[in-house]
Amino acid sequence: MIQRIFKRTLAFTTATLIGLFLLLPTGPDRSVSVLIPTAEAGFFSNDLELFEEVVNLVRDKYVYPPDFKKMFTVAINEMVRSVNEENIVATDTPEGQSISRADSTIHYQLNFNWDQNLKAFKKAYYFLLEEPDGKLSKEELETAAVTGLMSSLDPYSQYMDEDALNKSMQNTEGKYGGLGMVITMKDNRLYVVKTMKNSPAQRAGILPDDAFVKVNGKKVKETQIAELADMLRGYPNTKVTVSLYRKADDRERTYMLTREVISIETVEYKPLKDHVGLIKISSFSKQTHDQLRDALTKAKRDGAKEFILDLRDNPGGLLEQSVKVASHFLLRNRLVVYTQGREKSDYKEYRAKYKNTLHFMPVVVLINQYSASASEIVAGALRDSGKALVIGENSYGKGSVQTIFRTSSGSGLRLTTSKYYTPSGTDITEQGITPEIRVLKDPIPEELKSSDNSKTTPLRDNSGSPIQLKESEIIKFIKENEQEVEESNDPTLQFAQILIKGVSVANKKQTLKKARELAANIHY
Predict the structure, then answer these.
(1) Is the pTM for the entire model greater than 0.70?
(2) Most Cβ neighbours (<10 Å): which of 68, 308, 467, 521?
(3) For the chain, what is the mean pLDDT?
(4) Structural domains for the chain
C-alpha cells in the first residue's frame, strides 16, 4: 500500500517538474528569470487561448500574407501601453527588443517566424503580468494584445468584445430592439429627426425636432449620440422612459415606451415628375432587398419609366444584398462583382440572379465621397454594364470584404478576407468608382485643382472632353430655363432628373450624348 502511494507521488512530482522545465524561458537571454506558471503548459491552462486563436485566424484567413513581426510588435506595445506605468518601457535594441522596469529587464527578438514570435510574445506577456501593482488581469492584458494585433492589419479589421459583436450583428441583421426613431445632434443638443412607421415612438406621438431631456430619469445633457442610442436600445418587451421637450408648445412630455424589434428602413422610394422613380438606399442590411422589391412594386404602379438610384452617403453593408439589388437592373447571369483573396483559388464571382429584371429601363446612379463598399459594388456593376450613368463625386474606395468570426470566448473578429473588383477589373480600394459626370461643390476644393491622382482628375467622356459641372452652374441653369425638377437644395439630384427625363433606352452612349449637350448649355 505504502509502495503504491509512493509511486503515485513520485509520478506526480516528476510530471510537475517536467512541466516546469518545458516552460522555462529558452535562448541566450537569462538576465531575468521569468516564472511562467505550470498551468500554461498545454491542456493544463487556458492562458492566451484567445490570442493564439486570433493569430491562427489571421494566419489562415487574412487577405494579405501576414507580417508576423509587425503583428507581434504592435501586440506587445499595446500591452505595455495598457499597463500604463511610466517605469515600464519597451525599446528596440541592436539585438532585438526589450522591456524594462525599475528592477528588471527582459530581452526578446521578433522576426518573421510565427513560432519564435509567439515564444517572445509569451515572455513579454508573463513579464508584464508580474507588474507589482497588478493593475491588469490576465484577460485584460490578453485583450489589449489582441486589440493591438488586429489594429496592425488594416483600418477595417478589428477585435470586438461580446457586446460590440452583438451590436454589429444587430446592424447587419437590420433589426434591433428599440423605439423606432432617428436621432441627431445640433447645437450640442439631441433631437428626434423622424420616427419610423408604426414604431413605439410614432404611436406615442413623438415628433421631429422634439429635444431629449432625460432617459429613465437621467439627464442627457452632454451625452453623445452613440451613448443615447445605447440607452434607447435594448431587449424587446423591456421598457424605457423618455422625456422630450417640444418647442412648438413649450412643453416637456414624458413617455413610457416598450421596446420592439425595429426593422431599419434602408430603402426610400419617391415618385418624381415625368415618370421618374427615385430610390434612395441608405445601407445594405438583411432587410434591404425586401424593401427594394416593395419600392419597385410601388414604382411600377406609379408608371415609372426611368430610375434614379441614390447611393450617396451609403457606407455599405452586406455583399449578398448588394448583388441582389444590382440584379434587378441587369440581365440575368451578368457579372456583378468578383472577389479575390490571398490565394488564386480564393476567387469567387457573383452574378445577377433574376430572370425578369429592369435591364431595359434607363438608370442613373448618384454617388459621393461617402459611398462605400456595397454601394460601390452596385454603382460599379451598373456602370460597367454599359447601361447606367454615374453622377456625383468619386466614391470612398473601400473595396475589401470583412468576414465576422466568433471566437470560442464569445467575442468576435471583423477580418479582411478578400477584395472587391468590378466586372471590368477595377480594384475598388485603389480607384473607387469614378463618375462619368462629376458634380463639384463651390468653391472647387484645392485637392481637385492641384492633384493629378486618378481619383480626382476630371473624367472624360468618349469624345475626349471633360464632363464636370459646378453646383452653382446647375442651379443657375435650372432657374434660367425654368426646368421642372424636385424642389430641393440638391443640384446633383436635379441635374440627374433633367438628364434622364425622356430617355427611352437604357444605353449609356445615348445618355452621355444628352449629358454632353446639357453640359454645353450649362457652361454657356
Answers:
(1) yes
(2) 308
(3) 84
(4) 42-153 (no CATH), 175-263 (2.30.42.10), 267-402+417-523 (3.90.226.10)
